Amino acid sequence: MDHYLLLFLLLAAALSSASSRIILRILPGAGVPSEDYLYCDSWRLSVETNNAGFWDTIPARCVGFVDLYMNGDRYDSDSQVVAADAISFARSLRLAGGGVNAWIFDVDETLLSNLPYYKGVGFGSEIFNETAFDEWVDLAQAPALPASLKLYKDLQQLGFSLILLTGRSEAQRNSTEKNLLFAGYRNWERLILREASDIGKSAVIYKSEKRAQFEAQGFRIYGNSGDQWSDLLGAPVAKRSFKLPNPMYYIL
Amino acid sequence: MDHYLLLFLLLAAALSSASSRIILRILPGAGVPSEDYLYCDSWRLSVETNNAGFWDTIPARCVGFVDLYMNGDRYDSDSQVVAADAISFARSLRLAGGGVNAWIFDVDETLLSNLPYYKGVGFGSEIFNETAFDEWVDLAQAPALPASLKLYKDLQQLGFSLILLTGRSEAQRNSTEKNLLFAGYRNWERLILREASDIGKSAVIYKSEKRAQFEAQGFRIYGNSGDQWSDLLGAPVAKRSFKLPNPMYYIL
């Protein structure tokens, strides 16, 4: 059947359905069976709310779903709405001067998208391969998440000091800076990576310690944007935390 | 066009689409335009992750979406997956004896579903009407959330003491007990409602104070199930918290 005939049939079916309150959705991408789509969408919600707790790989039945989610329009839409929540909060604040007003950003899946890498490893269905991922990091070619790049610039315009706090190691500072510049990020206040003394700490501990240090240095941490709960939980917390979507991996 | 012809067209379209990797979804319910569906689904995620912060009514454009979500199979599926996360955590524990192992449940939209009430007020698109809601509470006819009722029974079987902690007031104790029994709940350890001294406290403060009291009484709070972030946040927290879905209202 050619595509014109298909389109005609879809149109005819859609028109006929208006009165019977049935709607048709045409989704591009992998052919995910309905029951998998329903389950995987609920699984994704349980991941995004941290209900699922620790997990190491995405469920095998959800590979097609995650492909569809990441490469269709849902990931972009979800990212846009988180960014809108963040900027709306930022604009509601009455800020003191002096550069003490801070906003923290995580890097991977927050400022930068590693989707080109994760496409090659089944969208998180394979066990994390540190060597292969480090090679990808060294390429320094991860694109920006468009919604985050806009939020980053808008926050700078409002006068926030932007602190980038990543689980990447100091050994990756050069490639990380290069990649951030490649993706369009400029003029961050700090880029904090794991030093030797941070290796082995959980992300929650490492990032909470760093937030405590920033506060001790006089920063007021208004916002914190990250795709992992371990970016956001632990004392001290930011005044508001913003959980970006990431159905591909979980970091403790 | 009659329904047989519609079905034929859908089938023909679906078959024709297999090779071009387009999938058709037929969703029952209100005819939500695609761009609203996409936006409202992202709005819902921002609510469930607490990114949205406080909100008083659902967006006007999302009434049809929330109807579809609550009355289609998604709400049930999301509720089932949260319950599965909870019971899987509970089964992983090595519990001490003596009835000190506690699990906290919120009541509204956690054990009981007020969907029959919210259907009549636009699924949360109208400002909360306390008088009308209290009349509904007095009817004591809210059904159980099926996934929560099963979780409740399974946790009892494992030996947990179940503490029900609700923002409802002591004046509603009788109707709340009656409703819980009507819905199939039995043998809770405690049912805690707001006393006079709790009126005016935010839910986070009121519920955190109660959790602190339970701990002082010797309970170990392993799990906490609630549809509001104000059920779950604040010190002390349970070892694991489980956020049930609720796109209809937000309680501070």
TrEMBL record, chains A, B:
From the UniProt annotation, give the residues forming the signal peptide: 1-20
The lineage's top-level taxon is Eukaryota
UniProt KW Glycoprotein keyword: yes
> A single GO molecular function, which one?
acid phosphatase activity
What keywords are annotated for this sequence in UniProt? Answer: Glycoprotein, Signal
Q: Which SUPFAM superfamilies match?
A: HAD-like (SSF56784)
Q: Which Pfam families match?
A: Acid_phosphat_B
Query: Per its UniProt record, what Gene3D superfamilies does this chain match?
Result: HAD superfamily/HAD-like
Residue ranges annotated as coiled coil are none
Q: What InterPro entries does the record point to?
A: Acid_phosphat_B-like, Acid_phosphatase_pln, APS1/VSP, HAD-like_sf, HAD_sf
Q: Which family does it belong to?
A: Belongs to the APS1/VSP family.
The name this protein goes by in its record: Acid phosphatase 1
The record lists the organism as: Apostasia shenzhenica
Instruction: Tell me what gene encodes this.
Output: APS1
